[in-house]
């Protein structure tokens, strides 16, 4: 027999737990049929900015707005979980609702403090195991070293967040609640010494969610508390360089060799679409003759996706290959282009932009977008551009597509000639 039950949610400020800076944590009290339990929302605010009647932060600013959004989201999630539990159980208790909200089974009892955590089920330990396996795959060439660096970077950021938020060195899987993703995202975008962009921060949360999923597979936790965090969206559109900007960089007279070499490497990327890692590793073996005419192509498996990139060698690229074929670095290391380390390359690109009067931050990703833009607006099909860029999915290539106004104008002129007479009258249907 099902019982009609009423859920009451009360937000309050726990002033007794105020920190040294005067900020107090926000709690939410769950009450069902006279029974109650409290949940910390993981947010702190100074009592002067807390509206006791409206139960929200009344100060202006981005942080206040985000806290209010999280308060509303927590209330919505609890209401949703309550209805789901009512469909499964005759009676729902506040403890059951709290458990589900925190990502653990409804009927699971709270662990006593005397229980010691099981070894090897902490978040950073899972990171270390994953990275150790990834290192072995990198050594065998199954995974790229660039992706390995990203995993190590994510692990370091999670470690910093745990220290900042929990004042701990590590965190047990069972202690990760559904607020972890939001708080980690806030830490990355607001509280770090060098805040990340929204898109980059979401990617870090996405990778961390993949590690937490290991806890689910090992049955350490029942569900992934980070699953509800939306990691998609927020990708800032990269505006490729205009052709006159590319030409200005290409034609610029440079007296310093290191800057000239970086310029040539950047131009090489703009007309091949190769990422830094792939351009760095290009050798004479990657030049392949294709077809009966023996057309010269650059063919290489992309390090990031392991998808084969194949790009016909344009005259400007052949010119650069010929220019550096007797360069000491290229001869010793069997390379097509002399390329600095990734750090130095990006530093010198900033210097190059200033010298050439380009008011953009030059980087390898911008070069790939510029290549895609040149190809797509020169009539090369999207599928072909995707193959040249080494993309697994055509949807990835679509993010590079930016149609220029002159191309729209040309296509519309064709439409006009088909549909309308020279006087502007709609043609009769044949």
Low-confidence stretches: 111-120
Taking the sheet with the most strands, its summary is:
3 strands, antiparallel
Shape: elongated
Structural class: mainly alpha
Terminal-residue CA separation: 72 Å
- Count, helices: 16
Listing every helix as H and every strand as E from the N terminus to the C terminus, the arrangement reads EEEEEHHHHHHHHHEEEHHHHHHH
How many domains would you count in the coordinates? 3
What does the secondary structure layout of this molecule look like, with pairings?
Elements: E1 7-13, E2 24-32, E3 35-45, E4 50-51, E5 56-57, H1 62-88, H2 94-101, H3 123-139, H4 145-166, H5 180-191, H6 198-217, H7 243-251, H8 257-270, H9 276-280, E6 287-290, E7 295-301, E8 308-312, H10 315-323, H11 328-333, H12 342-356, H13 364-376, H14 382-389, H15 394-398, H16 405-419
Antiparallel strand pairs: 1-2, 2-3, 4-5, 6-7, 7-8
Helix pairs in contact: 1-2, 3-4, 3-6, 4-5, 5-6, 8-12, 8-13, 13-14
Family: Belongs to the 'phage' integrase family.
Domain Tyr recombinase: 236-413
Protein name: Site-specific recombinase XerD
Tag the structure with descriptive keywords.
DNA binding; 8 strands; 3-stranded antiparallel sheet; mainly alpha; single chain; 430 residues; 16 helices; 3 domains; hpI Integrase, Chain A
């Amino acid at each position: 027999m099902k019982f009609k039950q009423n859920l009451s949610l009360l937000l309050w400020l726990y002033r007794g737990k105020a920190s040294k800076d005067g900020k107090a944590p926000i709690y939410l009290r769950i009450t069902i049929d006279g029974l109650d339990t409290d949940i910390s929302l993981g947010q702190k605010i100074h009592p002067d900015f807390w509206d006791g009647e409206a139960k929200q932060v009344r100060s202006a600013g981005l942080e206040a707005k985000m806290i209010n959004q999280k308060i509303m989201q927590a209330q919505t999630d609890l209401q949703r979980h309550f209805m789901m539990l009512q469909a499964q159980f005759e009676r729902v208790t506040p403890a059951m609702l709290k458990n589900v909200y925190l990502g653990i089974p409804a009927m699971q009892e709270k662990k006593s403090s005397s229980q010691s955590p099981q070894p090897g089920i902490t978040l950073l330990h899972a990171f270390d195991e994953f990275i150790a396996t990834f290192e072995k795959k990198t050594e065998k060439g199954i995974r790229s070293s660039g992706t390995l660096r990203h995993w190590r970077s994510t692990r370091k950021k999670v470690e910093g967040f745990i220290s900042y938020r929990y004042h701990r060195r590590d965190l047990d899987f069972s202690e990760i609640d559904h607020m972890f993703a939001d708080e980690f995202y806030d830490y990355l975008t607001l509280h770090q010494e060098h805040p990340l962009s929204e898109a980059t921060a979401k990617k870090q949360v996405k990778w961390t969610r993949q590690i937490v999923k290991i806890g689910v597979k090992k049955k350490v936790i029942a569900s992934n508390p980070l699953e509800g965090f939306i990691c998609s969206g927020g990708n800032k559109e990269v505006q490729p360089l205009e052709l006159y900007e590319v030409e200005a960089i290409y034609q610029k007279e440079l007296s310093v060799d290191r800057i000239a070499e970086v310029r040539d490497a950047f131009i090489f990327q703009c007309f091949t679409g190769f990422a830094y890692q792939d351009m760095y590793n290009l050798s004479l073996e990657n030049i392949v003759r294709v077809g009966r005419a023996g057309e010269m192509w650059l063919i290489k498996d992309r390090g990031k996706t392991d998808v084969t990139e194949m790009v016909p060698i344009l005259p400007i690229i052949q010119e650069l290959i010929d220019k550096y074929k007797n360069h000491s670095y290229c001869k010793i290391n069997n390379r097509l282009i002399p390329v600095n380390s990734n750090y130095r390359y990006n530093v010198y690109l900033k210097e190059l932009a200033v010298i050439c009067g380009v008011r953009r931050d030059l980087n390898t990703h911008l070069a790939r977008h510029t290549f895609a833009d040149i190809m797509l607006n020169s009539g090369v099909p999207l599928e072909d551009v995707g193959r040249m860029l080494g993309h697994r999915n055509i949807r990835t290539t679509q993010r590079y597509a930016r149609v220029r106004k002159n191309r729209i104008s040309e296509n519309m002129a064709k439409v006009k000639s088909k549909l309308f007479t020279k006087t502007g009258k709609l043609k009769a249907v044949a």
